Automatic annotation (TrEMBL):
Membrane-traversing stretches: none
Organism: Chromobacterium phragmitis
Residues in Nudix hydrolase domain copies: 2-132
Record's keyword annotation contains Lipid biosynthesis: no
Pfam families attached to this UniProt entry: NUDIX
Annotated InterPro entries: NUDIX_hydrolase-like_dom_sf, NUDIX_hydrolase_CS, NUDIX_hydrolase_dom
Protein name listed in UniProt: NUDIX domain-containing protein
PROSITE patterns listed in its UniProt record: NUDIX, NUDIX_BOX
Superkingdom, taxonomy of origin: Bacteria
Length: 151
């Protein structure tokens, strides 16, 4: 089994979260906050920042660690660190080679209501995130292990 360490950023602007859509027809279609695997000895915050740039063309500042999530498929066990980020600049563009290789077809700012009818990851964005944000993310929270729905 392959093990992977990853980082992502939850970036909110005007009540909307930056999300990317991974779509491989007949296989999967889901929305997720940008993120991905750390490369070699890359610090996790740097990995989150790089992944946002690669997947959506935006520059962000990465702040506090909010969640630690584990997930598994038959081939991979992954530990992902979700940071709170802030937009610094750029224009949404998911045309980079790294994004197209991952079947990222769209990036958008989605409100909580926009999540209705969509498959959304990480699952905390559907409920806990909004409460945790109001409480100020007092400490990073381990959210457990989930089985991957798509891989």
């Amino acid at each position: 089994m392959k093990h992977r360490i990853a980082a992502g950023a939850i970036i909110e602007r005007e009540g909307k979260i930056l999300m990317v859509r991974h779509c491989k027809p007949e296989i999967y279609d889901f929305w997720v906050a940008p993120g991905g695997g750390a490369i070699d000895d890359e610090p996790l915050a740097d990995a989150a920042r790089r992944e946002v740039l690669e997947e959506c063309g935006l520059r962000v500042e990465v702040g506090q660690l909010a969640y630690v999530e584990e997930f598994a498929s038959p081939e991979t066990r992954e530990c992902k660190f979700w940071f709170i980020g802030a937009l610094q600049g750029g224009e949404i563009d998911c045309g980079a080679e790294q994004a197209t290789r991952e079947h990222i077809v769209e990036a958008a700012w989605l409100s909580r209501d926009d999540f209705a009818g969509k498959t959304v990851f990480p699952p905390m964005l559907l409920s806990d995130y909004w409460r945790d944000r109001e409480q100020g993310f007092t400490a990073p929270r381990y959210v457990g292990l989930r089985r991957m729905a798509f891989y």
